[in-house]
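Sequence only, no structure available. Ideas?
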Amino acid sequence: MDGVLNINKPPGMTSHDVVLRVRRILKEKRIGHTGTLDPLATGVLVLCVGKATRIAQYLEAGEKEYRAIMRLGVTTDTLDAEGRVLETRPHTPPDREKIFEVMRQFTGSIMQQPPVYSAVKVSGVPSYKLAREGKARPLASRQVTIFTMELTSYEHPLVSFTVRCSKGVYVRTLCADMGETLGMGAHLTGLVRTCSGRFNLERALTLDALAETAAAGSLGQALISIDEALADFPAILLNEQESQRVRNGNQISCPEELANSAKDRVRLRDSMAGLIAIARVDAGVIKPELVFS
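Reply:
I predicted one. Tokens follow.
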């Protein structure tokens, strides 16, 4: 069983909990997710099944979109509503223009420090485990990109907004940082991932729906093929000689129409076998990165 699942993660479950549940439903051990969602969060969680686990890195790299709710004036140790309250700060409610201004400051390429309560590993140990033991260490900041951020509603102390961003963004850190910039602190109280790459919430399956589909013997309707999951990469149809070279891990010439393309990854297809490789376009040649047997 090979393919990709677009799951609507329910609240209260970790991403790993969802993987375990799907393993039981599908009776398949080779399942992994492509981007962690905190237990508080819901929405799109893309799972790779079987041979599709090999393409997780490509799916995880896609842009993300979220709907978030931020509470002003209260900080927590986890930066979200599930944590211990650290401080409740007296403050004057900011007007909408002030919130717009802060959102503009955090749009674009920014440096962001992952929360200590996260799955980032420190010497091989997840940071959240160290934090629970009182051994948390500040994590190194990393460069991420906020493409757009839009205020959708504001009824103090709650600020609702949407954000489109690169991989690696922690929305709870974004809330905490904006709260500090506003001078009153803040934390995340609600989060829905509406898109991950080309996968959106409208087409996501609940776990119950997946179980019903499996029981009915209709998993083919739920599984997205590896080829379709990577449809954002241009496809190149190879001749027999090119196919053989690619299967042996050798580079081939790049079609003229793609030589100057902004796309740096392509799908290599064979008329008989279908998708045979994912490759990188580099200096006018195509270099296989992942070849499917």
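The chain has a mean pLDDT of 92.
Hope that gets you unstuck.
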